[in-house]
Amino acid sequence: MSAANERPKKVTTHVLSEMKMKGEKISMLTAYDYSLASIVDQAGIDVVLVGDSASNVMAGWETTIPITLDQMIYHGASVVRGVKTALVVVDMPFGSYQGNSREALQSAIRIMKETAADAVKLEGGVEIIKSVKRILSAGIPVMGHLGLTPQSIHKFGTYTVRARQEEEAKKLVEDAHLLEEAGCFGVVLEKIPAKLAGEVASGLKIPVIGIGAGNQVDGQVLVLHDMLGINQAFSPRFLRRYHNLFAEISGAVANYVEDVKTGDFPNEREQY
Ligand code: KIV
């Protein structure tokens, strides 16, 4: 029986917590549109993340900072319409929750009402804990995100590995516990040493999903366009490419161009 056939009807935050208890790894990928979300869901993914990486891979911006709440809602609603089984988490974009907790709650409510997603994700620890608590108090499931938090790129200055130094590692561990105590159902750890990520995962009851954080965590997430090889420019050490869709698509397009130019397309069977 395939993994997809063994799955429960709908993945919930409760299912993820049971998976952690059973030692079953959690698979998570991004998606930003109906068609790809539907493929990813049918292939058996546990969690679909409508990441603000849409700013990079969908809109071509260099950072995740420009994407707006309206744009995230557009992507979120498109993904939700394509997903039947996976848990759908929508990233709260930069500027939609850092101001104050009231604004954060309003943004989260808009995401939940206008996309019908299952949960939201926010970047940061103690700095945003008030917002996290206020969103949770409205009954909205929250996922945390620590380590490399791309919305703070102008503070960090680089996309290099985070929490290598003791002080930053200590803060990350404290933040992770703070998020768990507040009631988050899971945490993403991005680009931190594998040993530290493993320690965080074993110290928390909630699932810890890594990206560039080694294999001692409870699950993995990748950006869909990166793992499918659509985006050739981005090639960090943690990325495993499962396909070369750039070559596949450009080959198909080149064949189409040639067929149109030579008059081979459409042929007699392809016309009325
Ligand atoms: O926006 C995103 O795709 C993310 C993942 C990298 C975890 O937050």
What does this entry look like structurally?
- The protein folds into two domains: 13-241, Phosphoenolpyruvate-binding domains (TIM Barrel, Alpha-Beta Barrel), CATH 3.20.20; 244-272, no CATH class.
- Helix content is 42%, strand content 13%.
- It is globular and about 65 Å long.
- It has 272 residues and is α/β, with parallel strands linked by helices.
- The chain has helices at residues 13-22, 34-42, 54-57, 69-82, 101-115, 129-137, 153-156, 166-182, 194-203, 224-227, 245-262, and strands spanning 26-30, 47-50, 87-91, 119-121, 142-147, 186-190, 208-211, 219-222.
- It starts with 12 loop residues before the first helix and ends in a 10-residue tail after the last helix.
- Helix 2 packs across helix 4 and helix 5 (101-115) packs across helix 6 (129-137).
- The structure holds 3-methyl-2-oxobutanoic acid.
- 3-methyl-2-oxobutanoic acid (KIV) binds next to strand 6.
Descriptive tags:
2 domains; 8 strands; TIM Barrel; 13% strand; 272 residues; alpha/beta; binds 3-methyl-2-oxobutanoic acid; 8-stranded parallel β-barrel
String of helices and strands: HEHEHHEHEHEHHEHEEHH
Associated small molecules: 3-methyl-2-oxobutanoic acid
Strand content: 5-15%
Spatial order of the strands in the main sheet?
Answer: 1-2-3-4-5-6-7-8
Q: Report the principal-axis shape.
A: globular
CATH architecture label name of the largest domain: Alpha-Beta Barrel
Could you please say which CATH topology of the largest domain applies here?
TIM Barrel
Q: Number of DSSP helices?
A: 11
Detail the poorly predicted runs: none
Compute the number of structural domains. 2
Ends apart, CA distance between termini: 44 Å
